[in-house]
C-alpha cells in the first residue's frame, strides 16, 4: 500500500487543487510582471492577452492578417511614434515615426545590423543566405554579392527575361480565346518561377508549359500556408524560442535536397563543358572559384586581401543558399506585384488606357521589341508599379533586432539589448497622414512632381539602408517587362468571378489573396497598331 492510498480522497483532491491554483497564480504574476515592461518605459502598448501577449490576437479587421499583426500593432495607437507589444512574454516594438525609422534602418544601422528572423541551425539553406545571415558574415556576403546586382549585370539578364515574357505571351495566346477569365496570381507565379529559375539556377523550369514543373511545385509548397506552416513562419519571424522547440526551417529537407541537386548538376555541367551564361549562377561560379565576381568596365578589381574565408566560405550549402533565397524572395514578390497591378488596372479602365497609350508608343518606336532601357524609361508604367507597391507591399514588414541598449533619438525610451524591432510597411503605406485616401489606387501619387513631396521613410517597398532589397532592380525589370507585353496584347477586365474587394489570406506572411485574382482577358488592338 503506498502513501496516496493511505490519504483520504478529499485530501488528495484539495492538495491538487491548491497546487493548480498556486501554479496558475505564479504564471499569471510572472506574465503580469512581464507585461509592465513597456508601461515602465513610457511606451504605449495595446492590451495584451494573458500568456499570449499580442501575437495570436484575432485580426482587428476583416482585411487583417493573422501573420501580419504588425500592421494591427501599427494602427493600435494612432499618433504614437512607436508601439510596444508582447510576443508571449517577450517585449518587441513597432517603430512608426519616419525619423525614428531612418535612425533604425540607416543612421544607426550598426545597432540594428541583424534581422530578428532566425531559422533552425540545421536548415543550412535558411541560415546561410543573405536574408538571414548575421553580423560581419552578412556584411561580407553582401559586399561580395552586390556586384551581381549592378544595372550593367542585370541588363545582361534582360534577354533571359524577355524570352520568358515571350513564352508567357504564347501561353496566353494559345490558352485564351477572344475573351476568357484566368486566375492571374497562378499564371504570373508560373511566369516569375520561369524567370527566376533561369536567372538564379540557370535552368528552364517550364512552369508555364508543364503543370507539374518541379520548381513551381517547390514554390507552391514554400508559400502554402497550412496552419502548421503559419506557425512555423510566425516562429521564424517572431518567436526564436519556438524555432528551437519545433526545429523550424524555412527550407524543408525535401526542398533542400531538390535545390542542392539542381544547383550542383547545372554547375558541374557548365564547368565540364566550359559553358558560360549571363546569369546569377555564373557570378556564383566566379565567387566559388575566385572569391569574387570578375570586375566589369569601370569597376575596381578585387584583390586577394578582399577575400576573407573566415567570414564566409563560398562552398557547399553556402553557395546553394544564395540562389535558393533569390528564387524564394524573387518569384512570389514579382507575381504579387504583377497580379495586384492587373487587378487594379482592371477596375480603372482609364488608368489602363493611359498606360496602354504609353505602351503603344514604346512598341511603335521599338518595332515591338523594347529594350531594358526602354522599359525603365516609361514614366507612367513606373508610376503604376510604384502605386501597386505602395498599396500592396509584397513583403509587408521589416524586422531588425537591437544589438545593444539604445535610446530612441528625441525620446526617453531606452530599448534593451536583443529587443526585436519591426516596421510595418502596410501600416506606413496605408497611413492617411502619409498617403491621403490610402485605399484609393492612384498612380498620380508618384508623378515626378508629387513624389518629390513624399516624406523620407514613409514609402519603403524594398526596405531601406544597407539591408535593403538587393534584387529590387531585377524585380522591377521583370514586372515592368511583363506588364508591357501583357497589356500590349490584352485588355484586362473584371469578370463575374472577380472578388471585389479582394479577401486577403490571413495566414500568409507575404501579401496574398485568399481566392486568387480572376480577370477577363480580351485581345487588345495595340498588337495590330
Ligand atoms: C517586387 C519585387 C520585390 C520586392 C517588393 C522586394 C522586397 C524586399 C524587402 C522589403 C526586403 C527587406 C528589406 C529590408 O529589410 O530593409 C527584401 C530583401 C531582400 N530581397 Fe527583395 N524584393 C523583391 C524582389 C527581389 C528579387 C527579385 C530578389 C532576388 C533576385 C530579391 C532578393 C532579396 C534579398 C537577397 C534580400 C535580403 C537583402 C539583405 O538583407 O541584404 N528580392 N526584399
UniProtKB/TrEMBL annotation:
SUPFAM superfamilies: Cytochrome P450. It holds the Pfam family p450. One of its GO terms (molecular function) is monooxygenase activity. Heme binds at residue 469. Its cofactor is heme. It is a peripheral membrane protein. The chain crosses the membrane at residues 6-31. The keyword Transmembrane helix applies. Keywords: Endoplasmic reticulum, Heme, Iron, Membrane, Metal-binding, Microsome, Monooxygenase, Oxidoreductase, Transmembrane, Transmembrane helix. GO terms for cellular component: endoplasmic reticulum membrane. It is found in: Endoplasmic reticulum membrane; Microsome membrane. It comes from the Eukaryota. Belongs to the cytochrome P450 family. PANTHER family: CYTOCHROME P450 (PTHR24292), CYTOCHROME P450 6G1-RELATED (PTHR24292:SF45). This is Cytochrome P450. It comes from Diploptera punctata.
Amino acid at each position: 500500500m503506498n502513501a496516496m492510498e493511505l490519504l483520504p480522497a478529499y485530501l488528495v483532491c484539495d492538495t491538487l487543487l491548491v497546487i493548480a491554483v498556486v501554479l496558475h497564480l505564479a504564471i499569471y504574476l510572472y506574465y503580469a510582471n512581464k507585461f509592465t515592461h513597456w508601461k515602465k518605459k513610457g511606451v504605449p502598448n495595446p492590451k495584451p492577452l494573458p500568456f499570449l501577449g499580442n501575437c495570436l490576437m484575432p485580426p482587428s479587421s476583416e482585411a487583417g492578417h493573422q501573420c501580419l499583426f504588425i500592421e494591427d500593432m501599427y494602427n493600435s495607437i494612432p499618433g504614437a511614434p512607436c508601439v510596444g507589444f508582447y510576443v508571449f512574454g517577450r517585449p518587441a516594438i513597432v517603430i512608426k515615426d519616419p525619423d525614428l525609422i531612418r535612425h533604425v534602418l540607416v543612421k544607426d544601422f550598426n545597432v540594428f545590423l541583424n534581422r530578428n528572423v532566425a531559422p533552425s541551425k540545421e536548415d543550412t539553406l535558411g541560415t546561410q543566405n543573405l536574408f538571414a545571415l548575421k553580423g560581419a558574415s552578412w556584411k561580407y556576403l553582401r559586399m561580395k554579392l552586390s556586384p551581381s546586382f549592378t544595372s550593367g549585370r542585370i541588363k545582361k539578364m534582360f534577354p533571359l527575361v524577355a524570352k520568358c515574357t515571350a513564352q508567357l505571351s504564347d501561353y496566353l495566346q494559345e490558352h485564351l480565346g477572344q475573351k476568357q477569365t484566368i486566375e492571374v496570381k497562378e499564371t504570373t507565379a508560373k511566369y516569375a518561377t520561369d524567370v527566376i529559375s533561369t536567372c538564379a539556377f540557370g535552368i528552364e523550369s517550364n512552369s508555364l508549359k508543364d503543370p507539374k514543373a518541379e520548381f513551381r511545385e517547390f514554390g507552391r509548397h514554400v508559400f502554402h500556408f497550412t496552419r502548421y506552416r503559419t506557425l512555423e513562419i510566425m516562429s521564424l519571424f517572431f518567436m526564436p524560442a519556438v524555432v528551437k522547440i519545433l526545429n523550424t526551417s524555412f527550407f524543408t529537407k525535401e526542398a533542400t535536397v531538390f535545390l542542392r541537386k539542381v544547383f550542383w548538376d547545372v554547375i558541374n555541367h557548365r564547368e565540364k563543358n566550359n559553358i558560360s551564361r549571363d546569369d546569377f549562377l555564373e557570378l556564383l561560379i566566379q565567387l566559388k572559384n575566385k572569391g569574387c565576381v570578375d570586375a566589369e568596365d569601370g569597376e575596381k578589381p578585387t584583390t586577394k586581401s578582399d577575400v576573407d574565408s573566415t567570414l564566409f566560405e563560398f562552398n557547399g550549402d553556402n553557395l546553394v543558399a544564395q540562389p535558393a533565397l533569390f528564387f524564394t524572395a524573387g518569384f512570389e514578390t514579382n507575381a504579387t506585384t504583377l497580379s495586384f497591378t492587373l487587378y487594379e488596372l482592371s477596375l480603372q479602365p482609364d488608368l489602363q488606357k493611359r498606360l496602354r497609350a504609353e505602351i503603344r508608343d514604346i512598341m511603335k518606336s521599338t518595332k515591338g521589341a523594347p529594350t531594358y532601357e526602354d522599359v525603365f524609361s516609361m514614366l507612367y508604367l513606373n508610376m503604376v508599379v510604384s502605386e501597386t507597391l505602395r498599396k500592396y507591399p509584397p513583403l509587408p514588414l521589416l524586422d531588425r533586432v537591437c544589438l545593444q541598449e539604445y535610446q530612441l533619438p528625441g525620446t526617453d525610451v531606452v530599448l534593451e539589448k536583443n529587443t526585436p524591432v519591426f516596421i510595418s510597411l502596410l501600416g506606413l503605406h496605408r497611413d492617411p497622414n502619409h498617403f491621403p485616401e490610402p485605399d484609393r489606387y492612384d498612380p498620380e501619387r508618384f508623378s515626378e512632381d508629387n513624389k518629390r513631396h513624399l516624406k523620407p521613410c514613409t514609402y519603403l517597398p524594398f526596405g531601406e539602408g544597407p539591408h535593403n532589397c538587393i534584387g529590387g532592380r531585377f524585380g522591377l525589370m521583370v514586372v515592368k517587362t511583363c506588364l508591357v507585353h501583357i497589356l500590349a496584347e490584352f485588355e484586362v477586365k473584371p469578370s463575374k468571378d472577380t472578388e471585389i474587394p479582394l479577401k486577403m489570406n490571413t495566414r500568409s506572411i507575404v501579401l496574398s489573396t485568399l481566392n486568387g485574382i480572376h480577370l477577363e482577358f480580351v485581345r487588345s488592338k495595340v498588337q495590330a497598331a
